[in-house]
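Figure S4 source data
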Amino acid sequence: MTKLILIISISAILCTVFILLCVIRTEVNNKYRNRIYSVDTVPASKICLIPGASIWGDKPSHVLEDRLLVGIELYKKGKVEKLIVSGDHGHTSYDEVNVMKQFVLSHGVNEHDIFMDHAGFRTYDSCYRARDVFGVKKLIIASNSFHLPRALYIASGLGLDASGVPSDLRVYADAGKNAFREFFAQYKAFLDIKLFKPLPRYLGPRIDINGSGVVTQD
């Protein structure tokens, strides 16, 4: 009898945990899906945030290149006035941000309209710093469909008026890896927004987003 009670108790706990995990994933995935638009239908905003992703030497990966291309399209169509390229530049040997900057420069974006966030080590940091370093209140996030729901969940949870535009311009060879990583990242996002509310790894001085992005070059 005692063994049966133990089995029932463990089963109940596991079922509760499973349901809780499903609820969390559903919230992160769906809460702000109504804020996802196409390039042509997204409401205009002054700022487009382009989150970083992996680079191949001095070139963006396909995932990152497509985020940049959508950000550039938003800029050229007058949907946004400024781009924040936010990524990992934690070491001199790895620099997502300057790769991103050079790419958008090569596609005709004015260097004064490119703001470089060298401490966008993760999506949470990029959104937090957009708000507290660059003083952004409203923005468009250009990112891939597998990442965009979490990015909007984080940005909105930090009080930003955020919309998103998907950047899926091709089929990605590492789609399975991206989905696996995103599975766990969604739970981390939920805990960061609802419970921990950590500071980003690095905050730094305020930068005027209404000025020239040249001051962020490094």
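Figure S5 source data
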Amino acid sequence: MPGDRIAILENFIRINFPGPNLVDAAVAWTSFTYVDPRHVTYTLNPAPVVARLGMTMKKNGRTTQATLGTITDLNVNIAIGYPGGVAQFRNQIGIRGVGGPFSRGGDSGSLIVTANTNQPVALLFAGRTDNTITSANPIAAVIQTLGIRRFVDRR
């Protein structure tokens, strides 16, 4: 559906059932030709950083739009149910929302960045059904697994 295009897929990782998996991720090219810039509330600083406990994060998601959260867990091992079965993920990040949920269904794939410097930290891929904790892949694992050379934000 060309009229519904928001990006062009470049690469993705197949989920290994039952696992272990390090990422549930894909990378795509997009532009403001496809995505309305009003939905992006920050200018990306493309230098990735490593997650730390207590770090304040933000993201722009399809469902919840712009939200803030705090990293509450590192190196989490988690089981996620998919239509193809249950997959185990290792070394994930847990984020709790500030003032409400950090994410809801439909926000998967959102880039999670530092709240103050807009640097990539993680990629959102799952959340608890009660929306209290969001699970995210560490950005270093996403970069390595997908072969990303750099992040770009050209406005």
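The domain at 2-146 is CATH 2.40.10.10 (Thrombin, subunit H). The beta strands are 8-12, 26-29, 56-61, 65-82, 85-97, 111-114, 120-127, 134-138.
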